[in-house]
Amino acid sequence: MNSIFYRTFVVLLLILFLSKTTHAQHDSLRVKFQTIIRSVKADVGVAVLGLEDRDTLSFNGQRHYPMQSVYKLHLAMAILDQVDKRKLSLDQKIKITKVDLLPDTHSPLRDKYPDGAVMPLSEVLKYTVSQSDNNGCDILFRLVGGTKKVEDYIYGLGVNGISIKATEEEMHKEWNVQFTNWSTPLAVVQLLDIFYQQKNLSKTSTEFLRKILIETATGPKRIKGRLPSGTIAAHKTGFSGTNESGVTAATNDVGIVTLPNGKHFAIAVFVSNATESVENLDGVIAGLSKATWDYFCTKK
């Protein structure tokens, strides 16, 4: 057999083998996703993307899900865009009055400074993203010019599967208002990819936001719940609470996970209209995240 022909034949066989192996692994992940999703009484949407190899998988990836505090990621990116354009500065002082600190809403900022405070914009961003502070969120919406400004900014990035209409204060007044702030799982993964690739923010702003996303204190049992200790995940959660009918409208987590080999995957999980315990809902997100982790760690 001609040596060149032989080598070509061997290479083709190897490519065919690897292609079949990758396809089988992809199918296995899809089956795992289906099993996890079917284990709960909820509407679950998930999208994942290998940020280096571009491998993608989604379930209900185009469906609309209420974001809740996930949209604080979108807001932070819009604020940092204004910082990059020198219309705002991370060092500028933000005066927060007692009137800004609404009661009966999640607000570590209010808990620490019940009578108000003056702090740099960077600190308000940390409270809003890392601690998911609702009062901080609305202070930033007012600073940037409202929800439409943030929505328009995200549209300008080419991400269309989102709607940002209501502030935290408005959502807290009426249960159904939260559904006006929605996203598809694929749209969030697209946004995370833009963020990771530094297509919209400067290196300084990207590193700042990544740091405060890594410091997220909420939802420790979601994306990171079943991953190895010490895993780095830059993520943002969202949670609606449960209404008097026992329905939890939104239990969400989205983010970028760093793998042991230094590569990354983006993941967005939305669990909506659920009648399960909070522990079970967190477990669904943790299970989908762990299945994705295993897939990318063992992928040929």
Q: How much of the polypeptide forms β-strand, as a percent range?
A: 15-25%
Radius of gyration: 21 Å
Task: Look at the helices and sheets and give the structural class.
Answer: alpha+beta
Strand order of the largest sheet: 2-1-10-9-8
CATH architecture: 3-Layer(aba) Sandwich
How does the major sheet shape up? 5 strands, antiparallel
**What is the helix content?**
40-55%
- Which segments are poorly predicted (pLDDT under 50) over 5 or more consecutive residues? 17-21
User: What is the end-to-end distance?
Assistant: 30 Å
Order of helices and strands: HEEEHEHEHHHEHEHHEEEH
| CATH topology description | Beta-lactamase
Task: Please give the number of β-strands.
Answer: 10
Tell me the number of structural domains: 1
User: What number is the mean pLDDT?
Assistant: 93
CATH class: Alpha Beta
Report the total helices.
10
Description:
By secondary structure, the protein is α+β, with helices and mostly antiparallel strands. The protein has a single domain (38-298), classed as Beta-lactamase, CATH 3.40.710.10. 46% of the residues lie in helices and 19% in strands. The strands form three sheets. Strands 2-1-10-9-8 form a five-stranded antiparallel beta sheet, with helices on both faces. Strands 3-7-6 form a three-stranded antiparallel beta sheet. A two-stranded antiparallel ribbon has the order 4-5. The longest helix has 36 residues, at 3-38. The model is unreliable at 17-21 (pLDDT under 50).
